[in-house]
């Protein structure tokens, strides 16, 4: 049903294609900006997001071993395939895992604009169905794995003393390389 919307609302296809393929660059830019232009909380947030992504990807690969299916365009007739994609196991959606890993982490850490991050992640997942490369279950599974993992990382990672020490060491090195005065960080 969702993929078929592209046949009825063709004027939305370019936006959905852009979102499905290129929104990852916006996410990468956001991560870089949060890291280099933010506070110690932002850096901890990026660390939590990265750990969430790593753990969620492992869990996603395990889930893919339990259940496997090819992309809709490879299994069904009349799929409105709007982007190129190799045929492989589409369960769960890696794009959804990536976006929900970071966007859910941003949601947990940020006070302002937090709902926009979840909306972005949901839009990316929706667009992956729209363009014909994922089933809704692929997207829901990727989102569920990432949300669960992000909540665990949010609760646990900031309490790990070795993470705090690594961030302090990184910042010392950054101050030596970049001659910018920075406030002392309190992780």
From TrEMBL:
Residues 47-154 form the Phosphatidic acid phosphatase type 2/haloperoxidase domain. The keyword Transmembrane applies. The keyword Membrane applies. The chain crosses the membrane at residues 20-37, 116-133, 139-157. InterPro entries: PAP2/HPO, PAP2/HPO_sf, UPP_Pase. Coiled coil: none annotated. Keywords: Membrane, Transmembrane, Transmembrane helix. It holds the Pfam family PAP2. One of its GO terms (molecular function) is undecaprenyl-diphosphatase activity. GO terms for cellular component: plasma membrane. Gene3D superfamilies: Phosphatidic acid phosphatase type 2/haloperoxidase. PANTHER family: AT30094P (PTHR14969:SF13), SPHINGOSINE-1-PHOSPHATE PHOSPHOHYDROLASE (PTHR14969). This is Undecaprenyl-diphosphatase.
């Amino acid at each position: 049903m969702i993929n078929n919307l592209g046949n009825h609302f063709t004027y939305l296809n370019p936006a959905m294609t852009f979102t499905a393929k290129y929104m990852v660059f916006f996410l990468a830019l956001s991560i870089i900006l949060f890291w280099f232009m933010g506070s110690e909380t932002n850096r901890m947030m990026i660390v939590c997001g990265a750990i969430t992504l790593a753990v969620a990807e492992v869990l996603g690969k395990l889930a893919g071993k339990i259940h496997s299916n090819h992309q809709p365009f490879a299994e069904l007739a009349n799929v409105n395939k709007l982007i190129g994609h190799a045929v492989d196991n589409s369960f769960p959606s890696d794009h959804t895992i990536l976006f929900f890993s970071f966007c859910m982490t941003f949601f947990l850490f940020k006070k302002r604009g937090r709902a926009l991050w979840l909306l972005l992640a949901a839009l990316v997942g929706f667009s992956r169905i729209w363009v014909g490369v994922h089933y809704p279950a692929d997207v829901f599974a990727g989102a569920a794995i990432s949300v669960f993992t992000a909540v665990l990382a949010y609760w646990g990672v900031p309490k790990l003393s070795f993470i705090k020490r690594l961030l302090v060491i990184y910042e010392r090195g950054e101050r030596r390389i970049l001659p910018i005065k920075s406030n002392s960080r309190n992780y």
